[in-house]
Amino acid sequence: MNTPKIPALLAALVLLLLPAPLLADIVVTGDGMVFNGKIIQHIKGVQVKLGNNHGVFTIRQDNIKEIHLTGDYREDMTIFKKMGRNVDENEVRANYQAGVAKIENRGKESRAEYLLFASPFFNFNLGRLEPILPYAWGALVMADARFGTETPALNAGPRVELQYLHSSRGIKSMEAFRFAAGPALAFPVETEKLTLNLTFSPELGGGYYGARGRDDRDAGFKLNFFLDAGVEFIVSSWVIAPMLRFEYVHDDSAPLMAVGVSLGAGYLFGHGKPSPGRPNRNAR
Q1: 181 with 160: CB under 8 angstroms?
Q2: pLDDT of 166 higher than 90
């Protein structure tokens, strides 16, 4: 029986360990624009993101006429010649190399989104306060700054929230003006039909709380903790978001706990904004 030679085994092992070659790509749009570089993301039926030496381009699926997946930039040159387009080989190669670099660094690239959001909310009070004031309602305004992380499927940053709270039953009532801040985590999810974020945020803050009964009144500053989880449905850059809420207000005699729901709307600045750039003009 023949025994394989050691050099041959080593060569086979090296080939197995080497990364697969990255392919160049060409996207032709319905209005005649031609992009060459590397496809960074392809959501079937929704969009394609292509990176090259001029930036990152988001191209909607309904505006795509052709997609060519090529082996390297030389194959791009062959396709351009078949199209009858006179292109600069150095630029085609530079677009390919830049696209490869964007794929390798896409988890490290800086991306930022800013959310401005407003919502009414309704709470079910728990604990010692429940028999006295079973319900509460209010309104909130919040702002998020979300930045890209090493994980492409996670954006994170600070959240600041301002709230007005009111609860009443009979002659007894409570109201508060309060604030909170904490980290906001957003997990982007894109499908063929929906673009949305799954969000989660713990927040710590305080507020001025006032309570009124038949013969007495009490007011003062109290610490509060909020925990929010929700789904942001994104249409263009507009956001509609239902949320589940938990809150705890510290009080030595009667701490307040509540669970609640909210449904609000806002605007997500910077969402889906492509990096500045331009297509391969020589390929037009």
Answers
A1: yes
A2: yes
